[in-house]
């Protein structure tokens, strides 16, 4: 989504953008909203990413494909998202094509490390060395959050190459009133007050903490309903049942983004409609390094929602405690439930927070983010 939104904004600013990659988010189509997408076949033996043979095969394919594509179609700048494999492969091609500057953007798991949770690519010695190669070979690297900036400062990359540029927000996606009966669609009571969280399951995302907070929330706000959107979350139903809050927890599974198209008859953007129908958004990640800069949190702010987040890097970047939401200690169930209840019971404060969320979101449009990247591209080209 970052590449799609950034690409679209750069095209609007007069640039040519081409995306290279495998079958991905929008399927195997040849382009999306004027962004050409070049997809190459991949060979794989189904081994884990930390398997050296699988790594070598992947790197050989990707580097050959990228070098060939640039030779045939040209490029002024290579911008690679995620440091491995894409960033490392791009750094290999950069050596072969010294006139093509390379900009890297890590997004979280490729740079952050949580040793006690086994989280982060850099815990693998081989991947760490390859990521460090990419960082030393690049011409610039962007940090989407303070946490990623701090992590980059612990690597061999020259600090002068690091630039702070956060993710943007598609404001138009959340404009206007909801056009879909979300409660009926999700079989939620009409009077329900929706608590929303969006994210694929990992132990660091704090889904369990949020469900454990629900008995305390429902005790004071009986109409409160938690909606969890994301892949691999189905097993959380068992925890909700054990805590006797199954009727107050809705697990939708993954809701894919609708493929961007101009067809006026395309189905509604269900996820955007859920945001617009909700009362509060929660980011409950329970460990430093678990968040880069959450697109879901930014989306919630664009939908004018007050936000409750754990006090970790990434969340701290965009949640101003008491202004557009609340920051609570990570893993603290009582603080999390109290903040949610406060949103529901303090209506004047909630209205003010919703207004402030939108104001902050408006300062992070993708056009403004694209302008910042444009300045980085011009800087590396001038060198």
What is the chain-wise order of helices and strands?
HEEEHEHEHEHEHEHEHEHEHEHEHHH
> What is the number of domains?
2
Cα gyration radius (Å): 21 Å
Write the CATH fold name of the largest domain: Rossmann fold
The total of helices stands at: 14
Summarize the entry for a quick read.
The chain has 383 residues and is an alpha/beta fold. It has helices at 2-12, 52-73, 83-96, 125-137, 146-152, 182-185, 207-220, 236-242, 270-277, 295-302, 315-318, 333-345, 347-362, 366-382; strands at residues 19-21, 31-32, 35-39, 78-81, 102-105, 140-143, 162-164, 193-198, 224-229, 249-253, 280-283, 307-310, 325-328.
Features:
13 strands; globular; Rossmann fold; 383 residues; 2 domains; four-stranded parallel sheet
């Amino acid at each position: 989504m970052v590449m799609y939104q950034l690409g679209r904004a750069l095209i609007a600013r007069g640039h040519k953008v081409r995306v290279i990659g495998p079958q991905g988010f929008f399927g195997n189509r040849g382009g999306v909203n004027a962004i050409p997408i070049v997809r190459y076949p991949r060979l794989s033996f189904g081994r884990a990413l930390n398997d050296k043979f699988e790594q070598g095969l992947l790197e050989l394919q990707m580097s050959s494909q990228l070098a060939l594509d640039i030779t045939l179609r040209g490029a002024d700048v290579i911008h690679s998202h995620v440091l491995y494999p894409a960033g490392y492969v791009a750094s290999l091609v950069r050596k072969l094509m010294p006139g093509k500057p390379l900009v890297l953007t890590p997004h979280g798991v490729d740079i952050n490390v949580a040793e006690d949770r086994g989280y982060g690519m850099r815990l693998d010695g081989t991947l760490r060395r390859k990521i460090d190669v990419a960082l030393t070979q690049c011409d610039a690297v962007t940090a989407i959050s303070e946490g990623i900036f701090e992590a980059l400062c612990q690597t061999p990359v020259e600090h002068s190459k690091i630039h702070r540029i956060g993710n943007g927000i598609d404001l138009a996606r959340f404009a206007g009133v909801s056009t879909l009966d979300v409660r009926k669609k999700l079989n939620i009571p009409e009077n329900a007050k929706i608590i929303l969280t969006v994210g694929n399951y990992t132990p660091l995302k704090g889904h369990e903490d949020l469900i454990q907070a629900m008995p305390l929330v429902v005790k004071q706000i009986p109409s409160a309903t938690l909606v969890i959107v994301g892949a691999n979350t189905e097993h959380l139903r068992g925890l909700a049942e054990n805590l006797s809050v199954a009727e107050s927890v809705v697990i939708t599974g993954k809701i894919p983004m609708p493929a961007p198209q101009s067809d006026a008859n395309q189905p509604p953007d269900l996820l955007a409609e859920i945001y617009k129908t909700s009362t509060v958004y929660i980011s409950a990640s329970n460990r430093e390094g678990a968040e880069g800069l959450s697109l879901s949190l930014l989306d919630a702010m664009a939908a004018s929602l007050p936000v409750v987040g754990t006090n970790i890097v990434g969340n701290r970047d965009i949640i101003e405690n008491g202004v557009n939401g609340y920051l609570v200690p990570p893993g603290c169930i009582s603080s999390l439930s109290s903040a949610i209840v406060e949103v529901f019971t303090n209506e004047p404060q909630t209205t003010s927070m919703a207004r402030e969320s939108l104001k902050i979101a408006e300062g992070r449009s993708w056009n403004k983010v694209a302008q910042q990247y444009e300045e980085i591209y011009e800087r590396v080209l001038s060198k």
